[in-house]
UniProtKB/TrEMBL annotation:
One of its GO terms (molecular function) is cellulase activity. Residues 54-506 form the Glycoside hydrolase family domain. SUPFAM superfamilies: Six-hairpin glycosidases. This is Endoglucanase. The lineage of its organism: Eukaryota, Viridiplantae, Streptophyta, Embryophyta, Tracheophyta. InterPro entries: 6-hairpin_glycosidase_sf, 6hp_glycosidase-like_sf, Glyco_hydro_9, Glyco_hydro_9_Asp/Glu_AS, Glyco_hydro_9_His_AS. Keywords: Carbohydrate metabolism, Cellulose degradation, Glycosidase, Hydrolase, Polysaccharide degradation.
Amino acid sequence: MKVVSEACVAFSLAYVYVLLLIGTATVEATPFHRIIPPLQSLYGRRGPSLSHDYRDALTKSILFYEGQRSGKLPLNQRMRWRGDSALSDGAAGHVDLTGGYYDAGDNVKFGFPMAFTTTMLSWSVLEFGGRMGDNLDHAKAAIRWATDYLLKATARPGVIYVQVGDPNLDHKCWERPEDMDTSRNVYKIDADHPGSDVAAETAAALAAASMVFRTTDPIYSRHLLQTAMQVFDFADKHRGAYSDSLQSEVCPFYCSYSGYNDELLWGAAWLQRASRNVSYISYIQSHGQNLGGEDNVNIFSWDDKHAGARVLLAKEVLLRNSKSLEEYRGHADNFVCSLLPGTPNSQAQYTPGGLLYKMSDCNLQYVTSTTFLLFTYPKYLRVSKQVVRCGNMVVTPTRIRTLAKRQVDYILGDNPLRMSYMVGYGAKFPERIHHRGSSLPSIYQHPQIIPCNDGFQSLYSNAPNPNRLVGAVVGGPDNNDHFSDERNDYAHSEPTTYINAPLVGSLAYLAHSFA
Ligand SMILES: *[C@@H]1O[C@H](CO)[C@@H](O)[C@H](O)[C@H]1NC(C)=O
């Protein structure tokens, strides 16, 4: 039996643009200070929500990471149905690569999305950690679970281990991580097999995390930052896409479709923020244009980081008055304008129910990553008392946040199906997620091994998953707000670590502001 279960990858064969542009009908010549479109047009067919328990959702969104843990679980593990797994990872390359995260519903440790997840969890804490309350320590533990692994993967100078597990073999089995007996090959990049994409993203992750631990663990923080600088240097000096030398191992799963320029810009942006070493500003000034700093993009994902880099660099302009990065303020504004329904440059599609719609597969990853930027950029605007101008429209920070909040509310249940897309949150949520460990009985209920092929009964069964992967957000509904909750429909039913990571920050903002 063969099952191809690609994780929520970015390539989409079917962009189905049969969507209604929300709000287009309501746009008219606008007085300078009027904020359009009317808010209710963003709510689609349903009215606004009564209220959400954002704090509960925040707690769960972080708890999810415990379900994705690989390696030896600690005594304070709260996701109790999981056990130790992959305790010899790295042995195939005579290195210790235990730990880290399974990226989604399979048992592969993909370094590229793991690094992006780490960067976004760290950014969530850097912007909104002060609003997390008791959740802050759990969020930091979730980051550290990844950075401990990334430090192992980058411990040898000139080499980065970028993946453990053969995805083609892994996907031919439906096994619990605790039973896993497929090949745990290790894959690496080096000067002769470069991977500027995965290396620069790893540098970004380590740099962002170094700021998270700066006051609570300065020694660890310094180690993260020094490693980040070395890894970025390696990424820049030995340029290439990791998918060129690791084609059959990383494609079509986490192929670097957008190339590596975006990661070099993003990595430099994080390093300048973390190190305050002016060499990174000079680097961005000299290379930004070649690295696509001005390209017209309106997507933000594990593959394409240009939009994130813009918002990050715009902060330097707004809060630190960095003249040399001035253009990024305009690029960040353009990104926001492209998303707002009814603005002259609006390019975004929304479902009839009001959800930002980018791609048919795993759409919620784009919603959560974009939403994070739409909460973060207004923070910088607010502090610097600025607004965004889209053509002759003035867009206030509040207006931007309203759109972002609408997206989170949709995920939590304000949608035509009245269901939450976060497992364990609300009254109705996905019960048959595409996730091996969650869909098979726990090793504590069923200690005998469930071999490779036997697990497929569970994949095709209609029964709800026996173990709840609390906090997991799945790929989500289609372009018509439909969701079938079928385990085999990985494009819509699979959770991933990078769907949740930016949502953690958004939920922290909302939990604090709408408590
Ligand atoms: C700044 O970064 C450059 C390039 O990585 C490095 O050569 C230099 O030593 C750094 N300066 C400081 C003060 O850390």
